[in-house]
Amino acid sequence: MNSKQLQYFLITVQKGSIAGAARELDIAQPAISQQLANLEREMGATLLERSFRGISLTAAGELFAAHARKLMSEINSAKRELQQLVANQEGTVRVGMLPSVGNVLSMSLISSVNQLFPKLKLEISTGPSYSVREWLEKGQVDIAITYEQDVVASVMDCEPLIEENMYLVLGVSEQSQIYRSLQHRQSINFWELSEYELLTPGPKDALGKLIASYEQSTGVALKHDKAYSGQLMTGLRQVMQGEGLMILPSSATFHLEESQLLKAIKIVSPEMKRTVLLATNRNVPINDASLKMISVIKRVVAQVQQLDQWRGVLAPDVESAQALPVERLTVFN
Question: What b/e string do you get for 93-110 counting C-beta neighbours within 10 Å, with b at 16 or more?
Answer without folding.
Answer: bbbbbbbbbbbbbbbbbe
